[in-house]
Amino acid sequence: MEKAMDHKQLMRWIDTLPREGVSVLPLTRSIFSREIPMITVGRGKKTVVYVGAHHGMEGITAGVLADFVDELIRSAQKDRVVFDISVKCLLNERKIAVVPMLNPDGVEYALHGVAEDNPLRERVTAFNGGDDFSHWQANARGVDLNHNYDAGFSEYKKIEREMGIFGGAPTKYSGEYPESEPETAALCRFLRYHSDDLVGVLSLHTQGEEIFCNCADKMSAKTLAVGRMLARLTTYKLSEPQGTAAYGGLADWCIDKLSCPAYTLECGKGENPLPPGDRGKIYERLRRALFSFPYLV
User: Could you point out which of 60, 72, 100, 116 has its C-alpha 20 to 30 Å from the C-alpha of 264?
Assistant: First the structure.
């Protein structure tokens, strides 16, 4: 039976990557000092970014992005053409940065529970309502990373209070202020630093087989056109986020603050957490979009 990729497996996979033409650097470390690696392939002047596992129980997206990086590197080494795209030419013209697992502490909670020696164990177990952390979405201290960006943050705070959330929680707590968490703060720093060459961002979540494209005033016609193309390539439904999903997310922040096309892909179908065995079929549905995205934006 296929196992879900946890942080240890992620780091073992990182060790197998070739270093020629591939850069692996820590984006930052999590609250519990787990390294959050960023893999960069290509030397083009335009940068695209892929991010997985914002949410603990959505760790399957880290495996999907690992599969993409593996195929990308292998195809470049063998000078392959994938979906009519010369991968070697692609990597001469674009730089592809991948953060497979932004929330390693949350993934650890969701897959393995909270260790006895975890200094936050009593606190997080209390607001989790028990020892079953399989549906945990937040980071180590109960902040939902995909609500921790400065995009409609103050508006979301009002909704948060209406939901009865006033502090750390398994999901939907946005934190004390935008970018309060080391994981989101480091990613935002990287994206700001590359704002002149950043042309597109994909954020992988589960589930629903939808692509969220926030049709706010700041979104250009091209951004919407690229969203439609991604929907066609994946056969996912193109949607505008509703309710709590419309606030504080990475894609919303990229559009609002950086004027950069960004999309949330809700991968797979079923009930979260999706079974690890779904990883292969999810990747197969996304392959064409993942390889095509750098040329679409």
Answer: 72
- Does the structure show a pLDDT above 70 at 82? yes
pLDDT on residue 242:
80
139: Cβ–Cβ under 8 A, 6 or more apart, which residues? 30, 31, 56, 103, 105, 106, 145, 181, 183
Average pLDDT on 214-242 reads 84
- For the record, the structure tokens of 273 come out as 């957490």
Torsion angle of alpha carbons 109, 145, 189, 121, nearest 10°? -40
Q: How confident is the model at residue 218 (pLDDT cuts 50, 70, 90)?
A: low
- First vs last C-alpha separation in the chain: 38
CB-based contact 44:95 (threshold 8 Å): yes
Cβ-contact 76, 17 below 8 angstroms: no
SS (H, E, C) 215-238: CCCCCCHHHHHHHHHHHHHHCCEE
Tokens of 204: 């992988």
Report yes or no on whether pTM surpasses 0.70: yes
- Domains assigned to the chain: 7-296 (3.40.630.10)
Per-residue pLDDT, 222: 83
The Cα 172–Cα 218 span in angstroms is 25
